[in-house]
Amino acid sequence: MSSKKAMKQAQKQSYAKHRRNIGNNKFDLKKKFLQKINKKKD
Question: What one-character-per-residue DSSP string does the chain give?
């Protein structure tokens, strides 16, 4: 595998990881926000 190919693959992987982290963070924030609302009702 050429170094160019390796670089591209490494970038792809880090980008995929980055995207997944953003998705998880949004989901966690939503969950926390909903929990706050539910606590207020009680």
Answer: --HHHHHHHHHHHHHHHHHHHHHHHHHHHHHHHHHHHHHHH-
Residue type, position 33, single letter: F
The two three-digit tokens of residue 8, written as one number: 């591209």
Give the number of other CB atoms < 10 A from CB of residue 28. Answer: 10
Segment 1-42, tens digit of pLDDT: 689 999 999 899 888 887 888 888 888 888 888 888 788 766
Model pTM greater than 0.70?
no
